[in-house]
Amino acid sequence: MFTKLKPVWLVAGRELKDQFRDWRVLTPMAILIFCFPILMNEFAKQTVNFLNQYNANLILERLVPFSIMIIGFFPITISLVVALESFVGEKERGTIEPMLSAPLDNWQLYFGKLLVGVITPLIASYLSIAFYLVMITRQDLVMPSFITLVQLILLTTAHATLMVSAAIVISVQSTTVKAANLLASFIVIPVAILMQGEAVMLFWGNDQVLWLAISGVMIISLLLIRVGIAHFQREYLLGREIDTINVGWLWRTFWKNFIGGANSLEAWYVHSLGSALRRIVPAILFLAVVAVVSVWLGHAWVMQNIPQVIAKSSPEDIQKLTAGVREMPNLTNLEAKLNAPFLFMNNTRAVAIIFLAGLFSFSVLGVLLYMVNIALMGGLFGVLQLLGISPWPLFLAGVVPHGVFEIPALMIGSAAMLYMGVVIVTPQTGKSMGEVILESLADWTKVFLGIVVPLLAIAAVIEAYLTPLLLAWVLK
Length: 476
Prior knowledge:
Layout: H1 2-20, H2 23-51, H3 57-84, H4 88-93, H5 96-100, H6 106-137, H7 146-173, H8 177-183, H9 185-204, H10 207-230, H11 234-239, H12 247-259, H13 265-279, H14 281-311, H15 315-326, H16 334-337, H17 340-359, H18 364-386, H19 391-398, H20 400-424, H21 433-465, H22 467-475
């Protein structure tokens, strides 16, 4: 094992020597390490002075951790240039041929570059955070707890791994350093948006959710590394000179896989759509298991947390809430408010959002959104049980009639999304990354138009016109 890892360290050592003797790399890093914490500290002082006027002690306790997260993020964005030019920069400098001709496996070469790309920003981030912590000890600011500090260090490490992994994938797929640098915005902006959500968790003091965020970022980082290795081809790096947008080739590749050689709608359903459906059967089975687990988790969460809320409520409030739930709602206008087109568009939009979330996260966020949708049923069961209402009649009348079409549609659409993520991170001999994405996108489109849309249309009609009648009959 150590023999195989030795070439990785040789590649990494060569790159580190080149970087740490280049003043154009060291100077911006030194400025960020020592100057940005001072600016952030001044910002914290002004914020403290402002918040002290309103006795916002809870916010003040979370201000320093928030500053640490921001201080750790900025050196990564600057050092990202090193990772972006890791392969394409070698190509432009004319030094890539000797490197690719070296007796190294693809994964050894790739991991050597990845290791350097991660180490450089992490050194800058850790030093910057340490400098900021030293300044905090000399001021009247609340130091974060040990657990929070560990979470922030791990979160910084996860961000660096995520951004560098994406940057190296871009470097492998780009033909010029200019193109790679322009594509860097697709790394920095999503991570900045992700950090906004993490900052909310930090100010809320929700440590458990923050651990989940760290785990999710690391999972996506590992998938990005897998994508890079799966689509790393030496001949591909040497053979391309410039990229052009060939709309005709894009459409032909997509349409060829979408039609699948069928010459009629029946043949398309049987052969083209049938083959796509067979490919996602393992994903469907996996998501069926995930659905069962999600329902159980939703029910368990409600049974564990809602009683605490009920315990703090007065008996009168509980009585009013129970009476309101037991009272038959006015269903006369339900058909006008929840008509079939509205329900169909709402459910279709939900499946599309799951697909888009999975597309940009290798199915991770898509599966999470799928779990949240399914977990709502378990949560509803738990709420009704806590209120002393039997959930089964309401479930059989209000969910089952349209759910037998809607839930399979959600599951099949999510399975196609999951299959797409798996295909992208799987090596495809003789195919470029663009071809793999187009073919898997065509498979998802076939499943969406051929199965998901018809099932959701049937479910919308039943939910709009039959479900209210059954609910009214049961609630009487």
